[in-house]
Amino acid sequence: MYKLTKEDIPPANMHFYKKPTLDLARSLLGRLLVKQTTEGTASGIIVETEAYMGPHDRAAHSFGNRRTKRTEVMFGPSGYAYTYVMHTHCLVNVVSGDVGAPEAVLIRALEPYSGLEMMEERRPKAKKQIQWTNGPGKLTKALGIGMSDYGHRLDQEPLWISDNYHKNDFSVASGPRIGIDNSGEAREYPWRFWIKDNPYVSR
Length: 203
Hints:
Number of helices: 3
Radius of gyration: 16 Å
Strand content: 25-35%
Distance between the termini: 34 Å
Order of helices and strands: HEEEEEHHEEEE
Structural class: mainly beta
Helix content: 10-25%
Number of domains: 1
CATH superfamily: Methylpurine-DNA glycosylase (MPG)
CATH architecture: Roll
Largest sheet: 9 strands, antiparallel
CATH topology: 3-methyladenine DNA Glycosylase, Chain A
CATH class: Alpha Beta
Shape: globular
């Protein structure tokens, strides 16, 4: 199978990630997340994100400056992948914030763009295409993103966010994040962002 490369779909410059986390969470919408594997390349348009604001955010893994083997990458520079396993699902985040400010943006849903046959094979229990990538654990399976991508710099193969394709004819909506009921007041913060009326948004 022909494998698309970052020459075909150029990545965003690392400077793109050097913005406040809430701004980055919005800026990622409409951009293309690309994953290259031995099977080929699959990609999807980012349609939903969630911002996690680090030490002062009870929903963040780095709340209270919690520094562990899992969160270590968040304490470094922005523009790197933070992957982790929750239950049986791998989730992918974009590290944001300055060095020493452990913040991140969760990629929560994608609209399939390329490599659709691979996505369908990787999501055999999904009854409809809309179910391939309409959740953070679903999209990583569909694209082939895993824990081996932890700490990967997002302007390089095999995992990157494109600066070439940018869907921009949409409105952005925001609201509370999902699945963080035990995080006190943080569960009410409107730090989830999505492309309004896009069918692939998780909720």
